[in-house]
Structure formats: structure tokens, C-alpha cells
Amino acid sequence: MSLRLLRQAFDESPPPRMWRSHPIEKHYDVVIIGGGAHGLATAYYLAKNHGITDVAVIEKSYIGSGGSGRNTAIVRSNYLTPEGVKFYDESVKLYEELSDDLDFNVMFSQRGHLTLAHNDGSVRTMRRRAEVNRLQGVNSRVIFPDEIAKLCPHLDLSDHPRYPILAALYHPPGGIIRHDAVVWGFARESDTRGVHIHQQTEVTGIRVRNNRVEGVETNRGFIGAGQVLNATAGWGSIIAAMAGVMLPMTTFPLQACVTEPLKPFLDVVVVSGSLHVYVSQSDRGELVMGASVDPMASYSMNGSLAFLEEISAHMLELFPCLSQVRVLRQWAGLCEMPPDYSPIMGLTPVEGFLIDTGWGTYGFKASPICGKTLAELIATRKTPELIAPFRLSRFAEDDLVGEKGAASVGH
Amino acid sequence: MASSSSHRVPQQPGEVIDRSRTIQFTFNGRTYDAHPGDSIASALAAAGVQMISRSFKYHRPRGILCAAGQCPNCLVQIGDEPNVRSCQRQVEQGIAVRSQNAWPSLDFDLLSVTQLASRFMPVGFYYKTFIRPLSLWPFYEDQLRHAAGLGVVDPHSHPAEFDKQFLHADVAVVGGGPAGLGAARAAAERGARVMIFDENPVLGGHLRYSSSRASVPALPKGVEVFTGTTVVAWYTDHWLAAVRGQRFFKIRAKAVVTATGAYENPLVFDNNDLPGVMLGSAVQRLLRLHGVAPGRRALIITANDHGLQVAADLRAAGVEIVAVADEREGRTIQAAEGKRAVRGVVLKNLKTGAMESFECDLIVISVGWTPAAGLLHMAKAKPGMFAAGRVNGTHDRARTDTEGRLAGQAAAAHAGFGPAPAETLSQTDQTQHTSPRARVPGEGKRFVCFCEDVTDVDLETALAEGYDSIELLKRYSTISMGPCQGKMCHRNSIHICAEARGCAVQEIGRTTSRPPISPVSLGSFAGRLMEPVQVSGVHEWHRQHGGKMMVSGLWLRPEHYGDPVAEVKAVRERVGLIDVSTLGKIQFTGPGVPALLERLYVNQWRKLGVGRVRYALMCNEEGVVVDDGVCARLAEEEWYATTTSSGAAAVFEVIQWWMQSGWGKGVHATELTEAFAAFNLAGPQSRAVLGKLTDGDVSNEAFPYMHFRLMRVAGVDCRVWRIGFTGELSYEIHAPSGYGWHVWEALLDAGKEFGITPFGVEAQRVLRLEKAHIIVGQDTEAVSNAIAAGMEALVKFEKDDFLGKRALMRVAKDGPKQKLVGFQVTGNAIPEEGLQIVAGQNGSRKIIGWVTSSRFSPTLGHGIGLCWLPSEVAAQNGARFSIHCDGGPIEAEVFHGAFFDPEGKRLKS
Amino acid sequence: MLLLHCPNCGPRNAGEFRFGGEVNPRPANPTATSDADWAHYLYMRPNPLGVQKEWWFHRAGCGLWFLAERHTGNNQVLKTYLPTT
Fold this sequence. Notes:
The complex is a heterotrimer. In chain A, strands 1, 2, 8, 9, 10, 11, 17 and 18 form an eight-stranded mixed β-sheet that branches. Chain A has an eight-stranded mixed β-sheet with strand order 5-6-4-13-14-15-12-16, sandwiched between helices. Chain A has a two-stranded antiparallel sheet with strand order 3-7. Chain A has eleven helices and 18 strands. The two termini of chain A are 33 Å apart. Chain A is an alpha/beta fold. In chain B, a hairpin with a 2-residue loop joins strand 27 (548-552) and strand 28 (555-560).
């Protein structure tokens, strides 16, 4: 039992604030646009690993209001490319220690992740992913219906479904997490170390002179900055455009929904690329479900009926016993999709203006490693090797990453 | 033993129960009586049962609160159906109802001890604990998971079918109370097609049980009435979703009138969640609709005349009114008392602070209303959305009627029926019926959120910790995230938040209203599970003859007929027949075709003669291979092309885009995928077989390799190609689909004497691989350009412009980093497709490529395949490399060209 | 569900169509385009929060490719029209 809880139980005085509200300074060494998990993780690692605390995180609404608060909280590293696997594996390792680091339970539940294969092409891809994973030291393997049945007895593994399950990529270290807690934990630890978090503060422009960033215009005035980081996944193109930088992304809504709480029965995260659906059961008992990005590019974060219809049909193909389980709520977040389904991180042609974008449907799971590497880049002005494959210049260099096979409804 | 219905009152006008019949059901194993028309909750209330469930976190006793399906307190499990709102579900003879989330029983729930630890479980407690040691977190988590959740999923549950229906309305009216009825009438009178939806079994809304005693106004003929139907969401352009039992409606309306009424507000005070605390409207529903008085000694807490009316109703039904505490007179409730149900109450004098105790078994709360404005929030002031009645804050009957009429007229006008009404209503103060007070401070537990057991202290603590926007507050405290989705708590939480922060209620804002307004089952959203499947016209033949079907995109195709190795041998030695009807087929007609083809494909087409065939490769603007097939020139201006089976629809769309956006001059393209069956007759004896079925000249001189002929085969006019991916002499016969089966059987019949065998996708794969043919989408992927894939010979850079040219120019200049190349294994192991090729040892070990296709070749007697390797390795014929495999590395060597008959003598014979 | 006006068929449910992406004009002379400019054409996108010109294909209908102007913030479609070729 945490000492803190005990103290709070008997203490009549108000509990300590998680993060404070400071007046805005005229200038910060580092201005991070976007108060989500990435932006706050970067602020945290800047302070913790590099002693850089003259940092402001500018958030237009409340912290975690963007993708960080809307994702379906899946963490995994079973990607397709060696560079992708390495990157996400680092993130998983950081997540494993995060509750301890932040002294805040982010409830990382490594209960296992299954990606189902319904045709021979998928089985081939699962084999490929398993091999790439294992060669990088990541625990993944291809399993077949007999073993799948033990992990997930409620799945229909018979011949009846339209697309019977042939095999699955089983990734034991994958799982789910309390996504809001990650945001709050990073926020508190950044705040404690002196980072200023400014909520309800919207960046309306970026001042660039002689191809060098000078600061950001906001609804609360101009803030000078030594370096500016664009960590606004979903709105990355809009912010980048303020600095005159065009990015290779298109923003699509990604929808999700949640059911009423049920007694626990689903122990693993289940993904089906062919059926465009994935599901996990939260610690509160709700089923959290998602699918592929919407077909139409948009910045609207509303759910649609077509999504609920399709996801329900696909869920019942996988789990026929769930037809009476009720959906409670649907929502959407924004995913900016680059052509090679890999993030775009680091330097831009504008000096001092850095980006953390292109996070598509795979951003939340990368929060810690993203924060750590970008903090290193900001502090040392050198791009860490781990994220070199994700540089913006790769498009002009015709050196795209090949992740399309793992991100298709991979969450 | 049936319990006596001790709380029934004499017959009520408008009641929905049939007192002449009695049925039985069980609750937690005990039998109870009910009348047809009773809800499970009303039947239990009639029997004096007050506790129906236990709450989510603290396992506190809960009973009927709203009787309207809005709160979580009466959720039960019926058979394999979890989380049923017992106040909305009718009793049926023999149903077995159980409470949820209580163990070992509802009455003695061991987990209610969590209440004792509540001091250590403040809001968000789980974020502050179970952190160390890390190794114990999975154990703690399991405990948390088992304590959470309400209903239980039965793995063998297979209930009845669900279906869907489309509806089209000029005006959709949501809500069948007085406002909705008025709107429906007004819109119908203008000639609009009106549909009215109400979740109750009959129209009337609150008129059915409130005390205005007015009769329910009738509707004009022609208005389509959907009762028992809940509209659960509004989507773009007035697309509504509604549920009635197992039917799901998708409604396109031109205009919508929202007359959905209001939720009655709970009050937050000590022990406000005790069974026996009920909203005034809940009491009226039980009384009027079901003839049940849910108590014998009632105490009324009110802030409006509605509460007084409820008191009068109860009195008329023989219930003793212990006291009426009217906030307008300075009295309210301080605490409810009792352990498992209300036994008494403490009232507070707001002026003097004096407390007064009373005994009672029913506490009625009537302190105000919150509009049920979910649909309005979702529609966000979209033109065509109108509102009337309590959802507007209007409780006065006369005004309600006027609002209904005006809304109906305005909606009809929006849908194109008549002018917009000129009359407007002045803004009046609508709040006299709702107390701004959300809570009464006290010493005990005061619940704001019944679903998640969130108290007002929890909210204040969260605010103090810094979760001070309404959204952060929601996410941290989980308030409004339970089954009621904020109906019972959102309004109160906003008021408490404002009070705690010392600001106006408007400053707090609200969280986003999200569909569905009421929970809807997955089965309802899914409807009938109808996944399209594409099959060839000869599909049944395959199934009847031992074809093992495999999933191939949307298609089902035969993988083999029992022995794929024998099938390979048959093709090499004699003759085989494969159904390739799934191939995409496109006919191009017109003078502009060559120019179009030259732009779409990397090959040259202009000079292709009539009757000639060329392999066709299509790239995208990145130079990435997207599709391949063959294309024949049937006549000067008639061309016929095939695409991959899986790519057909997409390729046709892309071709249409290029044509319609500028390249289509002088071309007409038609997709003929389903119009033609297609069979590939392959093997040394194929000419002999075909010769038996046609009068056409099939000699090598008359019909050479890579040529095309129109011929009559088995009496059917067919399109015949002499192409061969299997490496054998072969003919691809395209017959009009309707004759496919006939031609297929004729070929097999004619081939009998030569030992013909049908062969499937697996054998075809092996045969093609023996010729080192690539499979687009398997050997190539989203980043594979044509040069890297080894197709540079096909790319005609001298052409002016074609898809992929510019990108491929760059690749040609810089050279691709990796290349697709053939390999053969040096030992006996056959590497699985997907295995990685590695170089270096231990720390410097690197992945340098991977195996895309791999098979044992029965023809050659060893393993062969295709793989990606660094260009410099791929360039060396015979270069050795190592494929990483669990059982030990598999050694292989680069092999250029076709593995079998590299000069193509057999297929050109 | 969005109602989209096909220039040929009139207002139909958006589910009948396929979204074809932002209008991205092709360089007039690809062969003469630099590597950098070609990469820009292939990958860079304005991706605006605002009115966007885009392509739509009437997949489950007449098979027409047409243009639309839609606000990407609230999805309001301002107009649909045929490309001029």
C-alpha cells in the first residue's frame, strides 16, 4: 500500500496538485507545441536526462485531449521492419519501467497480443514479422488454432466464419495501458522539474526569420523560443505550415468504441487485419474496440454509424457469443498518415523547428521512446541513430520505411 | 413459493398491466408473481423487493431510481444476456433473472467490505498504488479486473437473429410526448411524410403517467408510428439510428424534430443511493403504468410543483405521506437512513440549519430536470434540426403545444413543405421547475455518479489535484463513463464543479455527447452477418470433386484437389486444367487505346499486331509494381487485358481515374471480370486436348506462343490466348460465363484419354515458381519498384510518359538497394516464406533480405524460391547466403533465370 | 452518413463512393522534373484544415470520378462537379 495513499487517507489538507498553472514567460529555451503524451514525454526527458528545464508545453485544450486521450491504449513492438521493431521495442522497455519512473501507476498490462491471420498471405506476413522480431530479441511467434484456443477460448476457431482463422502472431510482451495516466504521469514529473505546462493556450503562428525559428504566436501572446517542437499528432500539417514546412501526410479520423463493463473474459489483445478490427478488455471490464482509419480524410472527430455497423459485424464473426453485449460510447481521434506508415521525426529545413509527426495509428505506443530520442536531439542537436530512419528527408531521398504490412489495423 | 404482491394498488387509468393474468419469474432463484405488462423492476417493487443490484466499486445496495432506463441501479442478468435494465424489460413467463456483481449473493455480498476501505480508495487511488514491486502488478491487476465489470458473458451464447431496415422520412419526430405529437401533426398537415419514434410501448410520453390527466392527442392518418423504438444517435445529414427489439433502423430524414423530454435530476446528499430513494417520475411510472406503490410511508423532497403532484398521487393510492420538504419553503433532505433500504430520513431547514428525523420507506426526489438533448448536441445546430417541449426546458403544457406545432411546421418547411412559420415564441424563464442546488453537504457518502460510485468529495479532490477541466475531471474520476453516460450525473457534476471552483456553471462547459444515447448491442449494429463472397461459375464443380477451397481476397478458390504434388507432375508430364476465372478482365475499345495503354503500363503497345499478346506490367507514380497481367489486341481498335485476381477492382478504378481526368480520349473501357470464365489448359498434351474441341488451327505455326485467337471451343465462341506461366505449352480459354461449366467439363472430358488433371492454386504456384515468375503482392510489396523486382527489361524508357517512368528513371540512375532474385537451397530444408536472410555473426548480425516465395520443386527435386537481397549479392549468380531458421540456418545460393527450361522451349513448342 | 451529390446520379449516401484524395496536380513534364520536385509531387500534401478540393469515385453507382470541395473541419460539402478535360 503506497505511503502516499495512506497519508492521503488520514490527511485533511488538500492533496498536492499534479501540475501547476504558471504565468507565461516571454521566452523559453524549448517550446513544445502539443500537450499530449509525446510532448510531455519530451519535456520530461529533457528535464530528467539533460537537465533542460526552461521548457514550455503549449496545449490548446486540456492535456491529453488529442490522440493521447482517444487511442485504444495498445502497446506492442511486433512490427515488420527491423528499424521499426527496434524503435518500438525500446518504447516497450521504457513502458515496463514507467510506473516506477513516474511514481504513477500507468497500469501497463502485458497480457499478450494476438494478430490473427485469415488467409495464406497473412500467415506469411505473420511469419515474416515473427522472424524479424526474434532476430531483434523481441518475443513473438506464430501460433496455430490449438494454441490460440487456449489463449482466447471465446474466439470462433471453427470453419464457420467467412474468413476462418488460420494462425496468429503471438506477442506476449504486448498489452494495454491506461493512456491518460501516461499523460498525467509525464505531466506531473515534468511540472515537478520546472517545466511550464500551459493549457488552453493555442498556437496561432510560428515566427521564422532568415530560416530560423524565433518563437510561437499564441492566443495569449508571443512566446520566444530557442527551439520549437511540433508534437501535435493529427494537426501536424497545420502547425508545420505555420513554419512554412509541408509534410507528406493526410489526416484521417480513427474511430473507436467501448462496451458496458463485463466480468473479465478476454485476457489478450486480439487484432484481425483482414477483418479490420481489434479488441481488448480494459481493467474496468469494458471491451475497447477499434478498426481502420476512416475512408475520408477529415479533421472531424465524430464517430459514424458505418463504423459501428462494420465493427460489430466483424466482432461477432470473431466472437459470436458477444451479440448481446452493448456498446456504450463511440468517439474518434485523428491520425496523420504518411505514405510509409512510419513516423516523421526530427529536423526540418527550418532551423530550430523540429517535428514529431506522421504518427498515424501507431503513436501512443511510442510515447516514451519518442520523448527520449527527441529530448536527445533537442539537447545535443544530433539525431539519435534510432530515429534516423524516420527523418523528413527520407522522402526526397527515396528511402521510405516499409511498415505498411504491420500497421494495417495493427494496434 | 410465490411472493404476494403486497404493493399493488387499485387499477389505474392507463395502466399497462393485465391484472386478469398472472405469470411467474425468478429473481436470484426465488419465484415472484407478475402481470403481463409488468417490467421486471415493477414486479419486484410490487413484491416489496427494494434491493436489485450492487454498485460497481463499493458494492452498495441499489434499487430503482429512475424507472426509465437511464440509471444503472436496476441492471440484471437474464440468462446469457448481461446488463439488462430491469425497468425496461417486460416479464416473460419463466425467465430467470439474476443480480450482477455480487458474491456470494445479492443480500450478502462479500465485496461490500470495500466500503470499509473506502478511505484508502479515493478517486484515482489505483494510480497511486500497486506500483512496487513491479512483479506484483499482474497479481494486483487481476484482482482489480475481477472486482470490475458487471454482467457476465456466456461463451456459448447464440441468440436470435437481428435485422435492419432503411426508412426515409421528410420529417422524423423523436419523442411521442405532447411536444412530439404536436410536431408530427403539424408536419403531416402540410403533406410531409412524417415518422414518429418513441421508446415506450405506446405514444403519449409523460402524459401516460404524469398527472395532467390529459388524453393523448391523436395523430392524423398517414403518420408512421414506431413505438418501442429508441432513436440512439444522430449522424451527418440527418442520418438517424434507432433500435426496436432486434430490428435496427437507419433513417434518412430531411428534417428532424427532437422532442425527447428531460431527465429528472437526482439530488446529492448523504446516502442518496439507498434503495427506496426514487425520482418523482419513477414513482409516477410505477404507480400509473404498473399499479405499484413502491413504499408505504413516503417522504417527498421537492423544489417544484411536480413533487407536490407526486405526493397527491401517492396519497390517492393509499400511501401515507410522512412529510413534504419543499426547497422553496426552505427545507431539503440532509440524509437518507437505512442499511439496505430506506428506513428513515433527516431533513434540514435551510434557514436555521435545524435537523429533523422521520421514519419512512420511500423518499421521492423532485428537484428539477435536465433536457435529454443528446441528439441536439450531436447535430450541433445543423440546419433542419428543431426542438420542442421539455428538451427545450419547457414544462408548461400550453407552451409545449405551441412549440410542438411550430417545430413541426418549421421542419416541414425545411423539407420543402410550405413556408417557415412566421410566429416566434418569446424567451421565457424556463427554470422555475429546476433547483440550481445539486447537493446538500454532509458527513457521509454522497454519490454524484451511481455508475462508478463517484462521490462529491471525489470530484472536489480531483479538482484540487489539478484535474480541473470538465474533461480531465471525467477521465480521472470516471464520472459519466458508466452505463448511464452522464444522464444522472453530468448536470450535477457541472454544478458541483462550478461551486468548488467558485465560477459560473456556464464556464465549466460540458463533455461531448457521444452516440449511442442508450446502449445498443453488437448484434443490433451488426444485423445479419453478410460478408460477400465471390466464386467462379465452376465453384460447385470444385467442391464436388474434392477441391479444398482457400480464401483469396474476396474469392474462394481451390487450393488443390487432394495432392498438389501430383497435380504439378501431371502438368509437366501430361496436361492439367486450372480455373482462373477470378482474373480481372478489361476490354478497351477505340482509337486512343494504344496511347492509353502506353501511359498506364511500362510496356510498349503501339506496335503490337492484331492477334498478338504481351505481358503487361503496371506501376504507380512511385515506380512501385501494382499489377500485372497480359494484354491482347483483338482487332485494330479492340484490346483485351487481364489483371491479377485481387487487383481487378482497384486497377479498373485507377484506370478510370486516369481516363476520366484526361487520358481517356478515344477510349472506352469495360470491366468484364465476371463476364468471362477463364481456364488454363497446360501441359505437353494441351494442344491435343484443345484440338479435339475446336476446328481452329492450333498448330504452332498457326497459333504461336504469345498470340491470341477467337475460336469456337466445345461449340462456344471463346477468346483463347497462347500464354504460359507454368512454363508448359498452354492455352488460356476465356468463355462467356454462362457457358463456363460446359466448356470446363468438355475440356476435362476431351483430356481424359491424355490423363488430364484439374490443378489448383498451390500447384500453379509451384509451376510458376519453377519458372521464376513473381507474384505481385507476395514477392513484391508496397515499396517494391519494377527495377528492384527484376523487371527492368520490360520498362520502355524511350516512351514519352508512363506511370512510374520518372521514379524509375531515378532508380535506374541510383540503382536499387535491394533486388528480388531467385535462389535454390543447397541442402534438404525448405525455408518457410517470411524467413529472414542474415549476414554477420552475433553482435554484427544483420538482416539483409527475406524469402518471399519458397517451395520444394517436384520437377527439380530440391527447394527453390524468390527472395530479396542486397543488389550486389543478387547480382552474382551462385552467391551463397544464409536463411535464418529456428532449427538452424538454411544455406542457399542465388539463381538467375528460370529454374526449369530456362530457354522456354516447352512453352513455345 | 454524409450525403454526397454525384453530378450524374444526385444525392447518394457517402458509402456508395470512394474518397480519392486531395487534388494533386501532376507535373506537366515528368521526364523533365527534378528528383526533388518529383518526390514533392509524390508525397508532400497541404492536408489543410479548411476547404479542400478532392476526388470522389462513384464506386457503387455510375463509376464516375468527380471533384468536390469540402471543408475538412466540419465535412460540409460545398459543391461537386465534373473535371474539365
